[in-house]
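Researcher: Sequence recovery benchmark, item below. Answer with residues only.
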């Protein structure tokens, strides 16, 4: 007499164990919640019963199951679209499609099940999982639920499967075929029987283990069974039975009454394999959820293939080096750094945008180490901050095998076609493809241009219409009648709230309330919002608008800025979410009304539209270095009137992706007195991130200039003082380096000096700078040759940075934002620049007083001054002291969130030189290869 293999009892034990497993996993990962999605097409009664059982069991275990019921009218495309949506939902770890699909349209069930991601195919029906099972890769596939349940029942008999004769009766894709594979790779000798088997009874009678799933009621009789065999009955059939209330009874493919007399173990029907199928479905879901969570919620070491450099001496041009390297497809790079398919939108093969959902997915992950690259006060040639940023990232990744991201600004096309050229780094430390980096990239700058100019157009249009219409006429047009109904749109409700009007029905407003609502009453003299274009065009620095025949009498003198000078660019760089961006764009102040009240983008009704134009720009752009390490290129705010740093979001995503032991290397614009100070006091204040180290880039060339060397002019050969050893100039010029080291130390962050080596530098000069740096507060000072050698030339720097980031963090801000505006300005002037004090000119005093009255006192300060000196005078080199810093104006970027005092005259629209870079830029019409870009 056979012992009963109760699937009900076994499944209950498994479900209880799964419940405990989920609870235990949640103690380590509180947000863990396994998710199962069941897709059904149609409304079959039997399918509804099965699904109901699965949903009930899922709830018992702690699996969050959802039932997606599609109508019979669903097309194959609609079903596939549903599956794809679930594939992209990171809260769903398992997907099953309930078969059969009951549709009025032809649907290929095989195509649908294969559309499920293999990692979410908890039914085990995907051809990838089936293929892995067939070749014995049991650890890398998901086992089908019914065969897995059968194996679990067999194991509960205590019988070792190894070497046993196993017969599988049936060869279906769901049961028979995978069951035979599973038995085979558990080392049984397997025979598969089916409807065409010649002597079915003889084959079955040899089985030590018999699994039946052929769909014929009670086909297998007791005299077919080898005495002592284990019999697993997967069949479930209904046969007429007048003695039953429902008129039928359920039986298996095995004649239970006769077989149990011969077998040693047998599964009943019902209550045998059926409950085990549901239990294994839940086990597969929990297993995949745990794997997914461990893989996706916690960053791991990347399986990254680095690119080899073919170093040449002399070093070729930047464009020749960039072209000589074949970058990886960005889809490959994304996989290497553990980005999910749904988190990456490809823009061609070499660049992509990355979703902000990464931050939420990895919220349990500790951030990596945060390193900012700054520099001493530079020469007009620049001292190689971008090159050092890239070279350091290449060294940390390709040579020290650390997870590392470089985060850099996107360059403006103005300088690219003007005098400066591109900004992808240089030599063997570059971002590639260089031409895509320096040109349109993914269109972010174009979106900023469009949004900025839409706001400019909104200002002019509103002033025009207010000047030509009555209050009632304005009101009728702003709140139009739609089939007899007037409604305020959401942005208009915001304005009403700002005005203190609690009414929501347009009919209820009084005449005075209507006037306040419709009349912005902009004071033209206070308009600060300018149009922008991403081209160096000096003739747009001052223009007259409103000269059309219909705009007579509304002429106004305005100007164009370069796109990166737009406040919208600064908003992009400082925003922390799409919601935050919407709020920042809406509260941008464009002018004041004639009563001195600030007028915002939301007052103009355009805040939401600006966000729509900017919705794609918020996602960082993924590229790579010459050695195949990842780079985020995102945002490029003007480093004079804005804070000159790449985006907070790029840094946040990168810090999660690299993990606790990884590194994010980001760059601050201009000298440390500008870029680094703003990085700390503005960017870190809004991001909440704390830097672990500063890399301060210096060159012998720049130090000699600060030590009294001749003027350095772009495009003119360097005087001999810069080409010959001169320790006196170097030592005197180190005053600037020492001051910048001291500035970084004021924030409690260790400083590593990176001495960017040139062929004209002597060993004595380089070692002198190392000595002076270490004696004056630097954690270390390292000579680097990454321009000529790539990451290998920055390995010593990478090692020093690694050690520096291991130091205890004591990060602090320079000032409390609640201090008066002028006190904060004076603190920066004295502490960072070395000034004796500040002098507020009348206009600046007037503006500061207005900002205080308008409630903007508690914003950080973003100083707008020359980058060529610690002082306000470009010709004052070294570390001048005792000067008075004049504050000419104090402007405000309320949406971005800072006050920017102007020290001297700041040009926000560069001009083209006599011979711009565009002379050398062309394209080969046959190969489409871009020529001359640098």
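Model:
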């Amino acid at each position: 007499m056979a012992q009963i293999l109760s699937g009900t009892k076994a499944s209950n034990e498994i479900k209880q164990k799964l419940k405990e497993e989920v609870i235990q996993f949640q103690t380590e990962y509180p947000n863990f919640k396994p998710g199962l999605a069941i897709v059904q097409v149609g409304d079959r009664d039997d399918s509804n019963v099965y699904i109901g059982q699965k949903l009930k069991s899922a709830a018992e275990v702690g699996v969050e199951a959802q039932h997606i019921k599609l109508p019979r009218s669903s097309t194959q495309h609609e079903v596939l679209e549903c599956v794809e949506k679930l594939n992209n939902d990171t809260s769903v770890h398992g997907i099953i499609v309930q078969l059969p699909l009951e549709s009025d349209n032809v649907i290929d069930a095989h195509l649908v099940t294969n559309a499920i991601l293999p990692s979410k195919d908890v039914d085990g029906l995907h051809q990838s999982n089936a293929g892995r099972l067939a070749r014995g890769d049991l650890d890398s596939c998901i086992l089908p639920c019914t065969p897995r349940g059968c194996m679990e029942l067999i194991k509960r008999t205590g019988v070792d499967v190894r070497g046993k004769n196993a017969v599988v009766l049936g060869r279906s894709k769901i049961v028979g075929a995978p069951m035979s594979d599973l038995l085979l790779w558990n080392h049984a000798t397997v025979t598969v029987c089916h409807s065409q088997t010649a002597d079915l009874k003889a084959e079955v009678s040899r089985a030590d283990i018999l699994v039946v799933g052929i769909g014929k009621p009670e086909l297998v009789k007791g005299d077919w069974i080898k005495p002592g065999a284990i019999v697993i009955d997967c069949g479930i059939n209904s046969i007429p039975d007048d003695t039953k209330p429902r008129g039928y009874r359920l039986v298996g493919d095995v004649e239970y009454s006769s077989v149990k007399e011969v077998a040693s173990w047998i599964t009943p029907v019902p209550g045998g394999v059926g409950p085990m199928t549901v239990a294994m479905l839940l086990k597969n879901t929990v297993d995949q959820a745990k794997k997914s969570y461990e893989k996706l919620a916690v960053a791991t070491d990347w399986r990254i293939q680095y690119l080899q450099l073919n170093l040449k001496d002399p070093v070729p041009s930047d464009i020749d080096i960039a072209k000589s390297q074949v970058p990886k497809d960005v889809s490959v790079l994304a996989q290497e750094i553990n980005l999910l398919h749904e988190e990456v939108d490809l823009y061609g093969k070499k660049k992509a945008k990355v979703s902000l959902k990464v931050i939420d997915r990895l919220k349990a992950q500790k951030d990596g180490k945060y390193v900012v690259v700054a520099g001493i006060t530079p020469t007009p040639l620049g001292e190689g901050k971008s090159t050092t940023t890239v070279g350091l990232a290449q060294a940390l990744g390709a040579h020290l095998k650390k997870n590392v991201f470089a985060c850099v600004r996107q360059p403006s096309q103005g300088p690219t076609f003007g005098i400066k050229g591109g900004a992808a780094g240089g030599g063997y430390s570059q971002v590639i493809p260089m031409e895509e980096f320096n040109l349109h990239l993914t269109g972010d700058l174009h979106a900023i241009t469009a949004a900025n100019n839409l706001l400019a157009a909104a200002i002019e249009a509103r002033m025009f219409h207010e000047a030509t219409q009555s209050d009632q006429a304005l009101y009728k047009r702003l709140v139009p009648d739609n089939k007899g109904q007037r409604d305020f749109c959401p942005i208009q409700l915001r304005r009403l709230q700002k005005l203190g009007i609690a009414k929501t029905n347009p009919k209820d407003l009084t005449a005075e309330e209507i006037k306040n609502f419709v009349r912005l009453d902009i004071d033209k003299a206070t308009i600060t919002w300018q149009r922008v274009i991403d081209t160096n065009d000096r003739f747009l620095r001052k223009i007259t608008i409103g000269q059309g025949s219909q705009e007579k009498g509304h002429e106004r003198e305005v100007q164009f800025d370069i796109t990166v000078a737009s406040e919208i660019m600064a908003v992009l760089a400082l925003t922390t979410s799409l919601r935050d961006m919407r709020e920042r764009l809406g509260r941008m102040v464009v002018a004041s009304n004639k009563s001195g009240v600030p007028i915002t983008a939301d007052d103009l009704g355009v805040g939401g539209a600006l966000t729509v134009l900017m919705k794609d720009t918020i996602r960082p752009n993924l590229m790579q270095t010459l050695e195949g390490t990842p780079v985020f290129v995102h945002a490029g705010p003007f480093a004079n009137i804005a804070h000159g740093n790449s985006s907070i979001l790029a840094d946040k995503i990168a810090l999660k992706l690299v993990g606790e032991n990884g590194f994010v290397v980001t760059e601050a614009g201009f000298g440390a007195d500008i870029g680094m100070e703003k990085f700390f006091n503005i960017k870190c204040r809004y991001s909440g991130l704390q830097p672990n180290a500063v890399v301060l880039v210096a060159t012998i060339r720049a130090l000699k200039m600060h030590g009294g060397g001749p003027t350095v002019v772009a495009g003119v050969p360097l005087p001999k003082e810069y080409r010959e050893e001169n320790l006196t100039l170097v030592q005197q010029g180190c005053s600037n380096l020492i001051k910048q080291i001291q500035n970084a130390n004021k924030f409690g962050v260790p400083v590593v000096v990176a001495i960017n080596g040139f062929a004209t530098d002597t060993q004595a000069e380089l070692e002198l700078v190392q000595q002076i740096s270490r004696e004056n507060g630097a954690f270390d000072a390292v000579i680097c040759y990454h321009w000529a050698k790539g990451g290998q030339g920055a390995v010593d720097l990478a090692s020093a940075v690694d050690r520096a980031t291991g130091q205890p963090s004591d990060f602090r801000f320079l000032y409390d934002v609640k201090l008066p505006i002028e006190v904060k300005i004076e603190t920066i002037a004295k502490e960072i620049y070395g000034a004796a004090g500040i002098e507020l000119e009348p206009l600046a005093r007037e503006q500061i007083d207005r900002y205080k009255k308008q409630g903007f006192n508690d914003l950080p300060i973003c100083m707008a001054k020359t980058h060529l000196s610690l002082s306000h005078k470009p010709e004052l080199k070294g570390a001048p002291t005792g000067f008075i810093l004049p504050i000419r104006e104090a402007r405000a970027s309320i949406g971005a969130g800072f006050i920017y005092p102007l020290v001297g005259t700041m040009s926000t629209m560069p001009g083209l030189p006599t011979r711009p870079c565009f002379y050398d830029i062309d394209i080969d019409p046959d190969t489409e290869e871009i020529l001359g870009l640098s």
